[in-house]
Amino acid sequence: MPPDRSPGPPVSFICVHAGAGYHHPRTHTALLTLVSEACLSGMRNLLSGTTSCSAATTATNHLESSPLTNAGLGSNLTIQGTVECDASAMCGRTGAFGGVGAVSGIRHPICGAVAVMRGDMQGPGICGLVPPVLLVGEGAKTFCAAQGVEIVQMRSLITDESQTRWERHMRILREAEQQEGERAKKRQRKECRDKSPDLSEQSFPESHLNDTVGCVAQDSTGNITSTVSSGGISLKHPGRVGEAAIYGAGTWSECTPTVSIGCSVSGTGEQIIKTLFARECAKRCLKSDDVAESLREVIREFLDIDLIKGKERNVGVIIYRCELTADESIGDDVDGKKYIREVWWAHTTKSFCVAWMSSADKKPHARVSTLAPGHVMVIDGRPI
């Protein structure tokens, strides 16, 4: 472990999100309770003196255990009706990263990602063997089992709701394929060159439920750990890996002598991967003291970039920033040092559920952020 060079007051902090997408108002109360409980579970760890990694893992475990989210239990199913999850974790002080992709039968995918990250943290082993930073499929499952990560029957991760959702989506897909086949025959008969409706633009009733979950935690030493975990998009191809497992896409943590930052991202994985959204977002906010403007720039570029196909661009991010400042008029004073700490969230989706808590708070703050009609993004934040 390198010397502690992270700015961070002995005031711990944690924030979580339950995914960017669309959350029906009837689910809001349950979601707010869930993210609040996740914050509390992580904060208990921090108050007991454990690391940011332990706290972030605990909070993410709590989110993965809920059928309300698309991570772990109740995840979206592949087109073959199986569960394949992605997750990753990153340590700000060491830069260590670990990801698992398309893994089945792991109760808490984030535990697998953390196990991979610990290997990266240790560096080359015997004979200079370089430890992996990303493992997928059966190889990831075998590694996780060897590291003591809990393995379960895949069926135990499928809920009645996720099974029903899969059956409904398969029915919609088959009907759409049949309709497209009939259109193709008509076009051939009429030798029509008009473009038919693009089925890729059609969506399932719950297609906005991209509920990738995540967490950012800072412990009393100032170190930051960020996590993200996801069941992926509905009816994905087996073996598909989303942003939750990819370095720089789903999560980022970085500690410098004056500023520490961590972020966790949710949304449509392929779009986020192409833009390395987490890394880009964190790097911009690390260098600028105007987090809102930095977020606005990154999201605007995300909405405008030509690399992404389709009109709908889905992303949400929660970001925590802690800066050591010499300005005596602002910040909180700890041990004679001034710190500016703030939490921000932003999204292009219809809603985004977030919660945050510092060790100075009596209870978590939680909210479901919603996109106003006619707007393309929401950016909001609070000082800590």
UniProtKB/TrEMBL annotation:
Pfam families: Asparaginase_2. GO terms for cellular component: cytoplasm. Residues 176-207 are annotated as: Disordered. One of its GO terms (molecular function) is threonine-type endopeptidase activity. Gene3D superfamilies: (Glycosyl)asparaginase. The record marks 211-212 as: Cleavage. CDD domains: Taspase1_like (cd04514). It comes from the Eukaryota. GO terms for biological process: protein maturation. The active site is at 212 (nucleophile). PANTHER family: L-ASPARAGINASE, THREONINE ASPARTASE 1. This is Uncharacterized protein. It comes from Spizellomyces punctatus (strain DAOM BR117). The lineage of its organism: Eukaryota, Fungi, Fungi incertae sedis, Chytridiomycota, Chytridiomycota incertae sedis.
